[in-house]
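Fold it.
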Amino acid sequence: MRIFLTGATGFIGTEIVSQLLVAGHQVVGLTRSQQGADRLKAAGAEAHFGDIEDVDSLRRGAEACDGVIHTAFNHDFSTFVANCEQDRLVIQALGDALKGSQRPLIITSGVGMGAAGPNQLAVEDHFNPAHPNPRKASELAGEAALQKGINVATVRLAQVHNPIKQGLITPLIDVARQKGISAWVAEGQNRWSAVHLSDAARLYVLALEKNTPGSRYHAVAEEGVTLRQIAETIGHVLNLPVTRLDAVEASAHFGWMSRFVAHDMSASSVLTRERLAWRPTGPGLLADLEQLPPITRN
């Protein structure tokens, strides 16, 4: 198939490009720059110039292809609500371009959307449209597209990692370096699910090839790693002291990350593995943290 991929030059998108090509697909990657176009060409993909804020460019890309994988998202948390609304508009535009066909649209969300309540394990078949997280806008847009007969499915991401980047854990590392300590909150037993980059990318390819309209898949290799384990590993690797903080201390210490560090983001992928025969094989989160390159160490 000829696949239009947003976020094609990003952390996850770059790996998806590689795995799509290995699987025999053609890739048309969205890019804003000539540098991005050159990277896509070097990888064996085509470039489509546009931007997630230019919905006309998105429609043109989708209309010219046999399917779409949408991974692009603005991760500036200072404008998170607006970014989620923008993602809703992007999904709407991509869906409209595919309307009247069975061409698949794979969109992206977070595993937290599958939790029925605080500190509850997220599962694939649960979605609360009244969820307080603004990221629900992505899945609501997917639901609206599904009602229009569009072949849409959702990949929910855990903390996607390799030795270079580790999702929300990367800013935790930055905080540890800046503050000179690696910390967790309270008992540190809240858990974050995780998946290696290569496994996450392979899940997108499987979701595309075995697409079932309305499905939600969890890119989760590890159901949950405690924040204390994560903090202790960061401290070990960076040769920093590790410590416990209470909620008041955490707010000042972690800054914008304080909204996440005490939350449980554990998630199951039992149904995903059954439905797609997906078997993650990449290294675990803590193993990748142990391999942080020298430039990020103290």
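The longest helix spans residues 80-98.
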